[in-house]
Amino acid sequence: MLKPACPTKRALNMLFAVLLTTFPIWPLAVAHGGSFAACIRESVERDHAGRTEFQHGLFNLIVAGKPEFKALAALNRDLQLALAESRATKFAYLLKNDPARIETKSTLTAFRNFDWTAQDEEALQRDSETYRALSRRTTELRGRSDGHPDWPKMRAFFAEGLAASTAYRDLAATLAENDRAVAAFIETCPLR
Q1: N or C: which end of the chain has fewer CB within 10 A?
Q2: Virtual CA dihedral for 19, 24, 27, 33, nearest 10 degrees?
Q3: For residue 43, which phi and psi values (nearest 5 degrees)?
Q4: What is the pLDDT of residue 97?
Q5: C-alpha span between 48 and 112 (Å, rounded)
Q6: Is 46 within 8 Å of 182 (Cβ atoms)?
Q7: How far apart are the C-alpha atoms of 115 and 102, rounded to whole Å?
């Protein structure tokens, strides 16, 4: 007897995206219990997971195509993951201190690009050793990445081949599917 094929992560992501766009999303509101805070935490986790999967996939594609870029690809991946973690930490801060600044009824871009002030940064730096360490790591990674001598060659590799590859288009499509699913989920968040 043949065993059914095990669905891939991409297939499951696609199924999730199709279900979200095909069926009413009101059950999702029930899934987060009607709590604004729970909905935002879940939205941030889903968004972060999609970005993380994309960064790891991009790293793997670069290294498979041009192993000589492994160090720079890892540096870029680690910087992007640190920036994503920083954003998630800022969401937690806003959720605790000023949830009204979290936009849920507009676009995913508006949700991600909340107003962040110098006072917010100062307070979070003061109150969180974890965030201070993350900020130091982000600064260190950015310093190593900016001006790296391999950037021109890696950008050319991306523009001249990788960006048009099926593997990259599939990776980007998975990210876009995740973005659509996150945007749909955010719309289910109750008002504050």
Answers
A1: N
A2: 110
A3: -60, -45
A4: 95
A5: 11
A6: yes
A7: 8
